[in-house]
Amino acid sequence: MIQPENLICENVNTYSSPSELKITDIRTAHITGAPKNCILLKIMTNQGIVGYGEIRDASSKTYALMLKSRILGENP
């Protein structure tokens, strides 16, 4: 027999509920030879989702890695 509380839970949209997604690592790559040098970031999560970005405004790889300690474990 189907319980009424199970019917309610099946129809609840949970897309906006908090998730367990966490940043687990940040890696950098220095790109040279292009019209302009840049540093790319690769941000990895515990659920296999990967994001890419760039460091801008003359920031350095060292600066990006200093930020790593501040965002590890955070939900992106």
Structure description:
With 76 residues, the protein is of the alpha+beta class. It is 24% helix and 30% strand. The protein is built from two helices and three strands. The protein has a three-stranded antiparallel beta sheet, covered by helices on one side. The model has no long low-confidence stretch (mean pLDDT 82).
Keywords:
single chain; 76 residues; alpha+beta; Enolase-like, domain 1; 3-stranded antiparallel beta sheet; 2 helices; 24% helix; 30% strand; elongated
What does the secondary structure layout of this molecule look like, with pairings?
Blueprint: H1 4-10, E1 23-31, E2 38-45, E3 50-55, H2 61-71
Antiparallel strand pairs: 1-2, 2-3
Could you give the order of the helices and strands?
A: HEEEH
Figure out the total of helices.
2
Residue stretches low in confidence (pLDDT < 50, at least 5 long) are none
Based on helices, strands and strand pairing, what is the structural class? alpha+beta
The named CATH superfamily of the domain at 20-71: Enolase-like, N-terminal domain
Shape: elongated
What integer is the average pLDDT?
82
Give me the side-by-side strand order of the main sheet: 1-2-3
Rg result: 20 Å
CATH class descriptor of the domain at 20-71 = Alpha Beta
CATH overall fold name of the domain at 20-71: Enolase-like, domain 1
Q: How would you characterize the largest beta sheet?
A: 3 strands, antiparallel
Number of strands: 3
Amount of beta strand: 25-35%
What CATH architecture of the domain at 20-71 would you give? 2-Layer Sandwich
Distance between the termini: 41 Å
